[in-house]
Write a structure and sequence with these properties.
Tetracycline Repressor, domain 2; 78% helix; 0% strand
Length: 211
Amino acid sequence: MTSLDRREREKQRRREAIVRAAEKLIFAQGLDNTTMEQVAEAADFSKVTVYHYFNSKEELYYAVSLRGLALLLDKIMADSKSRPSAMAKIRCLIDTIRAFSEQEPHYYQAMNYFHYSKRSMSAGELLHKKDSLIMKKAYVWWQEVIALGKETGEIRADLNPFTTWIIFMVQITGFQELMDRLKNQLEVAFEVDMETLYEDFFTCLTQGIKQ
């Protein structure tokens, strides 16, 4: 290993340690109540070192959101691997996002803060590159699902995988965000069965792509 490799590994180690410290603090007390000074103390680095890697606590929160996004994608790919058909994999996508929002609410909130809202992030090139790599990996998975569906005759042969992916992501994430906010109201005021509602959502969402 060269001295350059060692320096890069040390930079990565420090970056990860700072993100982990920020994650624990933000998840425990919220973004507004977290300061860069607290992150530096928790990570056992100087404030100058923390600012060398991240310009603000918002940029740190962006890094945390990418950890959540990568974790969610890994779960989707792992959980859908055993599903035999394209439609079953798409249903797995919906179910996994729903479960993730319930089991990892802090990560999901962080993802919503940046990826599913109007907020933009003026972050370093490294973070934006990581974001792009995760999204490209997700799209490759989607392409494989659509290709499988076309091959088996489940999915229309004329569908454009990219535009379909964008439409599905907007619909699924928007629906899940709405359910997170209205679940109690729907169950109490309207006596909605959530399992039936998700089943109906899946049916409506996939009706237009079926062969």
